[in-house]
């Protein structure tokens, strides 16, 4: 019975280790941090995309005005315009186009600066996201290796437990399992001296006397905690 209890405690320890691997918490924290970076990266990607479209439009606007200015200048240079009034109007329009080009180029430069800044943020976030992904892969590899080792231990202990449990009566096993469930995982404990090692309480003299005269195969119970009490060479009976 004590061998079974010891194996069950070892199995409980393996299960606890498996559930509380440091990689679990590290991955949880990493996932939360990565989610923030991924969200920010989506925002950055959207901003960069919007600014790229805005820059293309600004480039197009500047080009269109320059082409119009070039056409007007070509008409003047070719001598096609002979009317002084028409020539004056074209020159005036070219001046207006020059000012319009300057304004558009200023706006274009502003968009380019915003785009450059947004791309820098985007690149930094991508680097962080890639670092998170690499760290996540490392943690998952470490976690999986630890889980594999613990599962192998659990399987070995399970095989040993099956052999030990097969030697015990079914009714005794059923009682042991009920006690384990309601007594913090300890259903059977040795009697060391006059003390139950399950609840650490010292038994009364009358209880010790009853244990002394009990049959070797009798199922003994601690009067304090109710656990199955197992006599050993260290028992004071």
Mean pLDDT: 95
The total count of helices amounts to 5
Q: How many β-strand runs?
A: 4
Q: Main sheet: which strands, in order across?
A: 2-1-4-3
Distance between the termini: 19 Å
Pattern of helices and strands = HHHHEEHEE
Characterise the protein shown here.
By secondary structure, the protein is of the alpha+beta class. It is built from five helices and four strands, in the order H-H-H-H-E-E-H-E-E. Strands 2-1-4-3 form a four-stranded mixed sheet. Helix 1 (2-19) runs antiparallel to helix 3. The chain starts with a helix and ends with a strand. The mean pLDDT is 95.
Question: What's this entry about, in short?
Answer:
The chain has 237 residues and is an alpha+beta fold. Helix content is 76%, strand content 8%. Strand 1 and strand 2 (195-196) form a beta hairpin.
How would the blueprint of this fold be written?
Layout: H1 2-19, H2 22-78, H3 84-165, H4 170-182, E1 188-193, E2 195-196, H5 205-213, E3 220-221, E4 228-235
Helix pairs in contact: 1-3, 2-3
Search tags:
4 strands, single chain, 237 residues, alpha+beta
